[in-house]
Write a structure and sequence with these properties.
With 301 residues, the protein is of the alpha/beta class. 47% of the residues lie in helices and 25% in strands. It has twelve helices and twelve strands. The strands form two sheets. Strands 3, 4, 5, 6, 7, 8, 9, 10, 11 and 12 form a ten-stranded mixed β-sheet that branches. Strands 1-2 form a two-stranded antiparallel sheet. β1 and β2 form a beta hairpin. α1 crosses α3 and α2 crosses α3. The longest helix has 29 residues.
Amino acid sequence: MNIDYIREFVVLAKLKSYTEAANELFISQSSLTRHIQSMEQYLQVPLFIRSTRTIALSEFGAVFLPYAQEIAQIQKEYTDAINIVLEKDPATLHLGYTATLSEFGLLSCLSRFQRQHPSYKIRMTEGLSNEITDMLYKGIFNYAFIWKPLEIPENIGILPVLEDEVVLVVPSEEKFEERISLKELQAQEFILNKLLFAKDPVINAHIQDKLPQFKVALTNIIGFRPSTQIDLVSNHLGYALTNKRTALSVANEHVRIVEIYPQISLSFCLMYNKVPNRNIAEQQFLRYAVKHMDNMDSNAS
């Protein structure tokens, strides 16, 4: 269960209004509704009694509330403690990222920023997109280079870095059209990059958003190297799903890239907290990112 949903439940229980709770949480009312429904599905009990105008805690919600309050308080305490440590050094830039950052060549952009500001320290935390977004939302750090989620809280800003899409990689001699329908792939099993597809809910969410009944068979999961994925396809050991930029960077004459429709678009971006109390390093980095973001895509191409 998402710990942020528990905090949202506590706020909704206090205010007894989806509109007021959503405003306090800086999220949309529809997002709050989905999050509460997700909790109820997880717990398999209704947490609120809903009428046309008001809501109230159900018997199950009343039992759950004190535990939820304790969890929400613990989350606040450890987040505050981490932020206190981070604020001790105003010249430190702490950002999160997925491994795709190096794959797209964006480390060179950070290197240029470091050369321009040699007195600043850069602390980096790597993880899957969902792990990094959770830490970003909790304020553990204020910046993250990640795949853009389907839903973004209102207190989070976005600077697009580059656009991509999901493609199918097949052996070059096999007969495929230039494009293939996503529905035609439902019966297939795929060679999947563990980092990008098998364990990253952000990427899978984009697939499910296009075709909710689509289920990727996770029987042939490889490690983190995209080149291994392509080598397996080259040797007729299966088909691969991956992002187009990665496929183009490691493809050889033995494989062919097939586009998928409807297109499953992916956006790699810099996400940041819209907080007023950024330290000096964070302020400078945001100015740098806004100024140079257009060049990042050309450098990564």
